[in-house]
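Worked problem 6 (solution included).
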Amino acid sequence: MTENRDRNRFLVLQLMRISGAVLFVLGVMVMGGRLDWPPVLGYLLIVVGLFEALFLPTYLARHWRSPPE
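Solution. The predicted structure is:
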């Protein structure tokens, strides 16, 4: 039971990191002029991507940590 839970949490953390990196790259592409989207959206994608890839997995891992026995 805990193996499934641990595996699922690991997958969630990895998918969060990957999706954050994808958002960051999309933001950089917008800022570089590769995508014809508003520049404000590019800045927003960069900020959200960095937050999702760097800070959110750490927060979730800390939140999911087992209490000391």
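Discussion: The radius of gyration is 16 Å.
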